[in-house]
Amino acid sequence: MPLVHKPIPLINGLDFMIPKAIDWQDSPALKFWHMASTYGDVYQMKIGTKLVVVANSADSIQKLWCEKNVKGNNSRPITYSFHKILSKGIYTIGTTPMGETYKKARKHVSEKVLSEKRNKDFNYVIMDRACDEMIERIKDKQGRNTNYDKIIISSDFLKEAQYFHLQVALWLTYGYEFNPDDIAHRYLGDQIIECENKITKVRSHVQNAQDYLPSFLKFVIAQFSKRNLEIQKLYSIRQKYLKEFHDYVVGFHRKINDEEYVEDSSTLKKNKAKKLEHVKTSLLYKFLEKDHADIGSIEITSECLTMISAGLDNTPLNFKFGLHMLVNYHPDFWEEAYNDILQHYDDDSKRAYKECSIEMKSEYVKAIVEETLRHFSVLPMSLPREATCDLVYRESIIPKGTILFLNCYAGNHDSRRFPKPNKFAPSRWLKPTTDHDGKTNKVIDKSLKHFAFGVGSRKCLGGNFATRELYILFAKMILTYRPAPQLAKDIPPDISLALNMFPESLAIETYPFEIQLEERTMNLSGVNVISPPSN
Questions:
Q1: Residues 6 or more apart whose Cβ sits within 8 Å of residue 227
Q2: Strand locations in 95-175, DSSP E?
Q3: What are residue 396's phi and psi, to 5 degrees?
Q4: Within 10 A of 235 (CB to CB), how many other CB atoms are there?
Q5: How confident is the model at residue 14, as a pLDDT?
Q6: CA-CA distances (angstroms) from residue 202 to 80, 229, 366?
Q7: Residue 263: predicted pLDDT
Q8: Is 203 helix (H, G, I), strand (E, B) or coil?
Q9: Which pLDDT score is estimated for 13?
Q10: Among 33, 108, 287, 442, which is disulfide-ready with 430 (CB 3.0 to 4.6 Å)?
């Protein structure tokens, strides 16, 4: 492979590998960022046999991932560990190389599930109910603190947020009503969470040395690698639960198309009829009914896998970190958000709780979401790209086939774009505006961009979906609870990487710690009835 022409600096060496990260300060994102002080914001290096270009600043990311390079920086490299062993030809949409399969799947799932129209018409109803049920489960665990004489909840919140996302994803994808209070459902949910979490740990594009070695060395390593055996086991577990959900929908579809079953209405018990209506709204059922002309089995499998796995860690981890920052460091921001929500609902907290999922009216809560996404940077190193044509960066030509690393953490903490980047400051996302009556308000500054969802032609297609999930979670929690006087002696750090249990993993996974909240006096929650979408 030809080398990138100067003046982009080159770190020579066929055997350049990133040492295994043991401590959070060994995080690949930090190492690449520190190297930028020597080699510049953009540099190239050889990792094994592969040529890699790394971008470590907001400006360089913008130039290489957008602007004139947007069409050429649009594919994913095929990696041995993830694509060959773990996925075996069936990938999430985000990890699929550029091609017709990717284009069809992205277009289809965007229209059917992830569009902003769908978010406003139906998705918010599912999110609203799942959040209400999450809060009810949290309340069941709370107790009165005798020293403080208040109702206090002390929780890690991560698992409950993961159940929340599973409820939303399984409903929209399969019409499957996941109930964490049911022992069998909870066992299945925990299995999915554990498997997808382990996949996140083994799929790092920086810490898998075998992905960058010649084929004959991969073969040799495969004979002795326990890691590959672990990856194969994860593949089998994932296929099992994906098949279970697939068969669940197919079973209903066959019954619906069985004339005797349809005519004999007595066989449709109330609970089965209810499940049937849920299934008929799902992504997979609609594919079985009428979407064959748009996509095939490969695309729908990719879409279903994407819906299950894509947000299972990311949304819950961001939610937990946001709670941590608000409760443990900025309780004043929590109350500011509370007051901002209420002003849109005539200071009626019950109405606010019931209606806050319909429209994202609070600009301050939206700012909290954006700042959480930026500050946390759940994927410190975004998924790699592969150039499908020559790219231009300043005076340099980056040849087709080059792998590109986006240092998301560095870009999101670039002081040239985000002054005082280590400060959690939702206000940075707000700008003043004047309405028709001359009243000054603050709204989200849409010109300010973070890289939490990637950027450019392969930006995460579920960004708006995840943002709405986080908005609903934060809004309802803020309306239900307030920060409690901290009972723990040691407050966890406010640097996301310092909270990471597994610095070698693809995503930041915070170590367990509890956050204390005090319940507000009035009972706001109540589970809503779900009606199917109009289309």
A1: 81, 202
A2: 143-145, 150-155
A3: -105, 150
A4: 17
A5: 39
A6: 12, 11, 33
A7: 45
A8: coil
A9: 47
A10: 442
The reply, when asked if residue 408 is annotated as ligand binding, is no
Tokens 């770190």, residue located: 11
Read off the pTM: 0.91
CA dihedral for 397, 399, 400, 405, sign (positive or negative) = negative
Are 289 and 253 within 8 A, CB to CB?
A: yes
| Structure-block tokens of residue 200 | 């996140």
CA 451 to CA 58: how far, in whole Å?
9
The percent of residues above 70 in pLDDT, for the chain, comes to: 83
Average pLDDT for 430-447: 88
Measuring CA to CA, how many Å separate 399 from each of 67, 97, 108, 357? 17, 17, 31, 46
CA-to-CA distance for 206 and 321, rounded, in angstroms? Answer: 24
Question: In angstroms, what is the C-alpha Rg of the chain?
Answer: 24
Q: Which are the contacts of 464, defined by CB distance < 8 A and separation ≥ 6?
A: 114, 116, 119
Q: Is the CB of residue 80 less than 8 Å from the CB of residue 210?
A: yes
Q: pLDDT value at position 452?
A: 96
pLDDT digits (tens, 9 = 90+) for 342-372: 999 999 999 999 999 999 999 999 999 999 9
Distance separating the N- and C-terminal Cα atoms of the chain: 50
17-25 contacts at long range (C-beta below 8 A, 24 or more positions apart): 17/47, 17/48, 17/209, 17/212, 18/47, 18/206, 18/207, 20/207, 20/504, 21/207, 21/503, 21/504, 22/503, 23/503, 24/497, 24/498, 24/499, 24/500, 24/503, 25/497
CA–CA distance, 44 with 52 (Å, rounded to integer): 5
- What integer pLDDT is reported at residue 47 of this predicted model? 82
Residue 80 backbone dihedrals phi, psi, to 5 degrees: -65, -50
Question: What is the number of other CB atoms lying within 10 angstroms of the CB of residue 279?
Answer: 23
320 within 8 A of 157, measured Cβ to Cβ: yes
* Res. 33 pLDDT band, cuts 50 70 90: very high
| CA dist., res. 326 & res. 261, Å (int) | 54
Q: Please compute the mean of the pLDDT values over residues 211-232 and round it to a whole number.
A: 70
Query: Is pLDDT above 90 for 451?
Result: yes
Residues whose CB is less than 8 angstroms from the CB of residue 412 and which lie 6 or more positions away in sequence, other chains included: 374, 375, 377, 418, 421, 450, 451, 452
Residue type, 311: G
Please state at what angle helix 158-174 crosses helix 183-202, rounded to 10 degrees.
100
Q: Mean per-residue pLDDT for 97-106?
A: 89
d(CA 479, CA 353): 7
Token readout for 485 is 């006087």
Given a cut of 70, is residue 95 above it in pLDDT?
yes
How far is the C-alpha of 460 from the C-alpha of 382, rounded, in Å? 10
Six-digit token string for 130: 């799942």
